[in-house]
Design a protein that fits this description.
There is one protein chain. The protein is α/β, with parallel strands linked by helices. Helices cover 46% and strands 16% of the residues. It is built from nine helices and seven strands; from the N terminus they run βαβαβαβααβαβαβαα. A seven-stranded parallel β-sheet has the order 3-2-1-4-5-6-7, with helices on both faces. It is globular, with a radius of gyration of 18 Å. The relative contact order is 0.13. The mean pLDDT is 90.
Length: 252
Amino acid sequence: MVIDALGMPQSLLLFGGTSDIAVAVAREYASRRPLRVVLAARPSPLRDGTVAALDSAGCTVEPLDFEATRPETHQALVEQAAAGGDIDVAIVAQGLLGDAEQAWTDSAAAIQLAQVNYVSAVSCGVALGAQVRRQGHGVIVAMSSVAGERARRSNFVYGSTKAGLDAFYSGLGMALREYGGRVLVVRPGFVRSKMTEGMSTPPMSTTPEAVADAIVEGIASGAEEIWVPKSMHAVMSGVRHLPKPIFRRLPF
């Protein structure tokens, strides 16, 4: 299985498979062609509902048990996912937002964020990189965040995990090029989703569907990184270069 000339894959592997963005990507592809989806997530009623919804959308869905905090299982999981055929696109979408204030005052909370958002992402990335080398093709989509661009007082622990993920996958993309693989790093702003439900909505917020559309377009175009919305790139470039005394006074 390979991505065709129009950028359409025949198979997806979704880590954190109940993620609103990952599901939206699967729906978008399924609206265009039949699709095999390996959905890696914890067993739960939410996973069951997601499997049923994707099945109704025209996907052939294979659920696999995935625990982000057990990296020793991730290599075998990727191999199991590939037993039914090559993995054309893999989306690394597991993640926790956490409580920002608890995260820097409670070591257990900080470690949990680091384990789920960074350690598990690296573990999955190493396993996926090995699979891409075996196949000689494949795209890995890594869900980063604008929060990783520069540490902010409001969520610096979360931001640090995304900064690490971003750096790892940017490097993995360079390493896999000679083997026929690609990595797409996705940096969305605030996404109105299950993860952010109940939070106030800032300017330039986006939706899972908009992020999914950008991912599909990015895969088809061969992009290595995308910002959602696109205007976030310019905004965060400005934020990144602000002098620290001014940056500290910003209301976030």
